[in-house]
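Hey, weird one. I pasted the ATP phosphoribosyltransferase regulatory subunit sequence into the form twice and got a warning about non-standard characters only the second time. First submission, copied straight from the form history:
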Amino acid sequence: MSQLFMFEKPLGLRDTLPDLYETKAQVQSTIAKEIKRWGYQFIETPALEYYETIGTASAILDWQLFKLLDHEGHTLVLRPEMTAPIARVAASKLLNEDQPLRLAYSANVYRAQQKEGGRPAEFKQIGVECIADDTVSADGEVIALLISALKETGIDTFQISIGHIRFVQEFFLQILGTEERANELTKFLYKKNYVGYREHVNSLSLSSIDKQRLLDFLKLRGSEEVIENAFALIENEKGKESILQLKNLWKTMVDYGMEKTLKFDLTLVSHMSYYTGILFEVYSDQVGSPIGNGGRYDLLLQKFGKNTGATGFALRLDRLLEAIGHTANSKPALCILFSEERRREAYQLGKEKRKQGLNVVLQDINGVKQIDACTSQYEDITFLIGKAGRESDK
């Protein structure tokens, strides 16, 4: 094991400096306000959970979990995502009458990274979960809320790609016959390796018609026309039911007046293995990876003893800030620079200015080596130096 440098941090962990922190706080507050306007209630869950519950229920790969032991020998994990912890809380404490729940969260999550990955091991998510509502209206609601929240942040352009994981599963099973062969082909979609997908299809022992259907599957991207094209490819009844759900979802989003930011991408799959139906990802031109994602997970709560469905979304604040593309000015509005004789006067003035809503720094002149360097840190500066009444300049 190599010796650590003095300022070295654990792999994937980052410091957040004042300007970025202020921007993150503002964006988080904006999104939280919009979420509350839609009737969702915020909750918190522990950063540490039992591996036997959240660790196994989560869709995050086992090697990405941060694990440790408590004093009784139980394996704990730092929460790798928020959906599973909220499912635990909902199933154990909130779903007594099986009425729809609208819950929200804003929390850091933790995922171990490999050295070559270059990805954060800790990042903040803000999102919602609509629990115990099996209707497509619930799927439409969380997508509409997502769009509304993003617009409130001032992000210029974004697009939401929508798919249906059950359609992909049923279509592949219909042609390939076994889950093993279907999963093998699905791996290319996870990696968005469409060249590898085509090569794999061409190598399969299938009729030319079935090979062409698998190749035509990659064309299922676009607007309303995708629905009819998908119907032409699928023969399985469960697969057709999935397409009908997407058709209903499109009508729902038209009713919201939010269809312009959407496109269908029926090749979309997710590394989050608990998704069972409609799923989606949010993209921005300025960021190479999704800034958010979500979908329906109708089996997750069964792991906690409740037979009900749910849907939701999570936004990555780090990627969203990158998409927004600017940082806030975190400089305090006013610095009052004072000498010993006028310290009490300075304290009183600072108190008054803070009551007016200003951010105020009180600085003893003897603690400043260079006045010019000090004044450049603040939007405004007031001098209270010397005897009262003799000097009070801005």
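That's the output from the first submission. The warning seems to come from a hidden character in my clipboard, not from the data itself. The mean pLDDT is 90.
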